[in-house]
Write a structure and sequence with these properties.
The protein has 123 residues and is mainly beta. The protein has no helices and 11 strands. The strands form 2 sheets. Strands 2, 4, 5, 6, 9, 10 and 11 form a 7-stranded mixed beta sheet that branches. The protein has a 4-stranded antiparallel beta sheet with strand order 1-3-8-7, with no helix packed on it. 26% of the residues are buried.
Length: 123
């Protein structure tokens, strides 16, 4: 079994900062990429940021220059440092892992989602 668990959400005032963490665990053979998505009330889930195994990153235009995704070397833990938060950043933030597991000696690709962590930006 593989699981992805997020932490670090909460209530913050506009202009404030938060750091989200995400850990992937279980019988993981390899990880191709991990990333963050978010879903605001009444809206579809949208891409926020992603980081690959060679530490290449990409960001949604709406968060560029404010959010930074990073990964601990040698671990399956990623972070999302969020600065300059705006009310429109309010959403449930989900961690996603694009990974591979061994299934009876065959490599099988999986996409695993966490349960989400709520970020509320409000005064």
């Amino acid at each position: 079994q593989v699981q992805v668990v997020e932490s670090g959400g909460g209530l913050v005032q506009p202009g404030g900062s938060l750091r989200l963490s995400c850990a992937a665990s279980g019988s993981i053979f390899s990880i191709n990429a991990m990333g963050w998505y978010r879903q605001a009330p009444g809206k579809q889930r949208e891409f926020v940021a992603t980081i690959t195994t060679d530490f290449s990153t990409s960001y949604a235009d709406s968060v560029k220059g404010r959010f930074t995704i990073s990964r601990d070397v040698g671990t399956n833990i990623i972070y999302l440092q969020m600065n300059g938060l705006k009310p429109e950043d309010t959403a449930v933030y989900y961690c996603n892992a694009d990974l591979a597991v061994m299934d009876y000696n065959l490599k099988k690709n999986l996409e695993v989602w966490g349960q989400g962590t709520l970020v509320t930006v409000s005064s």
